[in-house]
User: Which sequence fits this backbone?
């Protein structure tokens, strides 16, 4: 991992993902998590303040970036909740099948190289009846915005840690074996190519 990826990029990502509109989006979805929770892309712990401690038994924070884990460590250590960091070896989630009541993923599907494989892993670790809660930015509904997303994305991906601004989130969820049961979408304040948001809940299709 380069100096930029380990020491500079975590701060840039934390800044970009902690804007007021992003935090309002987290507030809509994170409190719905319950039981034993697997959070994909734990990052610097921006979701931690929004969990309902009365509903959450344990949180596994999956975060492959050493720099991000270091940034989140003080928050994790002072939290009253049981939070355990886990790493991601390749695209395999290191938890047993049927071990999580909730999987939470916020602003991370844009970055995961093989998102479908990781979604299949999320489905594997979810208990029967468990829910995937998601809040992501992605492919815009307006053709002119989509054109700009497609033009800018190759350069953006290089400087933003692999983030893709044009991923089709519903299609990814379906390809990973999920069916959306709650589906909300809108532009949040900010640069439109980065600010079309999808959020809701999904369940395994089998």
Assistant:
């Amino acid at each position: 991992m380069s100096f930029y990826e380990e020491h500079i990029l975590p701060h840039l990502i934390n800044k970009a993902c902690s804007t007021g509109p992003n935090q309002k989006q987290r507030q809509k979805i994170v409190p719905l998590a319950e039981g034993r929770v697997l959070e994909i892309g734990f990052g610097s712990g921006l979701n931690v303040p929004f969990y309902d401690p009365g509903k959450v038994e344990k949180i596994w924070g999956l975060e492959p970036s050493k720099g991000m884990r270091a940034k989140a460590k003080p928050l994790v250590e002072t939290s009253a909740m049981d939070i355990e960091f886990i790493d991601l070896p390749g695209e395999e989630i290191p938890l047993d099948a049927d071990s999580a009541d909730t999987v939470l993923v916020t602003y991370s599907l844009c970055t995961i190289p093989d998102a479908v494989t990781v979604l299949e892993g999320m489905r594997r670790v979810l208990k029967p009846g468990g829910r995937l809660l998601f809040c992501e930015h992605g492919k815009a509904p307006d053709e002119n915005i989509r054109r700009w997303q497609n033009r800018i994305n190759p350069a953006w991906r290089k400087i933003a840690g692999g983030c893709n601004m044009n991923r089709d989130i519903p299609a990814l969820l379906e390809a990973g074996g999920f069916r959306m049961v709650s589906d909300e979408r809108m532009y949040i304040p900010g640069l439109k190519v980065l600010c079309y948001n999808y959020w809701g809940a999904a369940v395994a299709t089998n």
